[in-house]
Model the fold of this input.
Amino acid sequence: MMTTSTLPIAVKSAPSRSWQVMDWLVRRPSSFTLLLIVLVCGVVGAINPTFYSVANLFDILRASVVLGLFALGVLVVLAAGGLDVSFAAIAALVMYSLTKAVVQFWPDAPLALILLAGAGGGMLLGALNGLLVHTLSAPSLIVTIGTQYVFRGFLLTFIGTELFMNVPPAMDAFGKATLLTLNTASGGQTQLPAFVLVLAAAAILTWWLLERTLMGRAVFAMGGSLNIAERLGYNLRTVHVFVFAYAGMLAGVAGLMHVAANRLANPFDLSGIELDVIAAVVLGGARITGGRGTVAGTLLGVLLVALINNVLILAGVPSTWQKAVIGAFIVLAGAVFAIRRRG
Amino acid sequence: MIRKAVWGGAALACVVGSSALYAQSESTIVTVVKVTGETWFKRMEEGVKEFDSNTPSIAASQTGPAKADAAQQQRLIEDLVAKKVTAIAVVPMDPSSLEGVFKRAMDRGIKVITHEADTQKNTLADIEAFDNKAFGARLNERMAKCMGESGKWTSFVGSLGSLTHVQWADGGAENAKKYSNMTLVDAKNESFNDANNAYQKAKEILRKHPDIKGFQGGSAIDVIGIGRAVEEAGLQDKTCVVGLGLPQDSGKYLESGAVDGIGFWDPKDAGIVMNKVAQLVVEGKPITDGMNLGVKGYEKVSVKKGAGAGVIITGEAWVDVDKSNYKQYPF
Done:
């Protein structure tokens, strides 16, 4: 997608070597993300060699799953020129009410059914976002800020507020399922959880949707220019509902992954993750104003954010400074992205 | 005509009666917690309700923001100030950010009582279940005994802005200085009250210090997250996890040995005590050192001058719980 949507102007006037490098970077913003990842790894690895361990890799992958599912949803909304900040609230509402319902009414429900219900529930809530954005023709950021409070409020008022530890056995088993178990040097064990496959599947599905379907074209067209997309004959209502429903669906699944991984359901969880997710998508090269973005770039962005969140202790950054370091990193990377686009 | 008069009289009696009833329950004490619905504050609400039903002259209730957010809590308190309740009993999210609204409340004649905020200036009385440093030291002492008084250990806090959590961590660090073989590493990790964050941080620490022996938790869910990390690493028998925790929520990890002990104070008692103190202040009665507030752990409270004009009331209301006795506490 990146290659087709970038103007070929730079190519004509690029005789020198540095220009070629610049051109390559401009055409592939995600290469810059990759560069940052390598840089962080290099620095942290130099400070603390235990960084280079399989256990660490597994932990970062584990931390990427929920973040990544959210990010893929945000990518699709962002590509269509919108912004969704209600995904964490959708995830919290879906994960908590579904887990509670399963525990109360059908404790032995099979995992596939729970996942399907989670995806469906998230999709419905997302579709509601899409309908509101379209009918009110209001900025999606404002609409989703509103629905976010509605979802959270509904959850705490009508569903429940208590944390519970006895999650359904099917989810518990899924959270514990491992692809790979290795022994660490200290005599402990480290596992690669099976639920990373869910992120892989979602990534492939999202890539296929954006790059190989008519809907994908419509999404990018709408993100490029609403008016032009309309004149091209795309049904904006359908596209709006689709992108938000898709983001909602991934959020629902992400919520269930959170419960399965954590083995507890806490309705207060997942708040504050919104900015991490949006940062990941933007650091992955998607344009915040829409029309641009790739699945590969987004995954790199997710990896970068998960990486930073998981190495600051290893790097010896005192906890009082950790937030500041994360913030500085985002500002720095964001600035480089902005400068590069102008250049 | 006569009938009309009778009806009129009855109606009048009704009005007089109801206003008399209204006057009786005119004092309203509202307890404002950090976040509504958390198990901890639900238990506190039980105390508030008990106080309410035992004290007919006062209408006591509890409220709190849906999200653990200092700004939302402040807005709630501003509403209560506008409504002009008799007294507010607040468990502040961030004491310093509430100074302004507390001052406005007191200027309007509203009595302000706080809990878990011994640095608060604009309060008439701050209630501490125990001395925070002493509680931190006690948690640390239990952890130290468990880890044989030697080895690396670390501490967790809900957030660095949560004063009590920081005091527990500091009190723990102070206590550990007694043992020359204990080393504090990467102290005060923030979990942001999310078990998953505590889990991820604990994993990172286990990676950086594979030989770590002790974890001292801060937020009530810290031990759950740390416990899971310890359990997954198969280190139940090699590490000692002790921290604030709730018996029901931590039970699973107490059973498996991933969490070795929890400590807490009963939020129900704290809720009753906050309201009792508010009642004393409203009735203009003095609060004296060594007085009995009629609740277990608060039978002989210490009263000191606080950061502002108010006092700090400290009890000795901690409860030590481990695998053997956690089932006695139904919350």
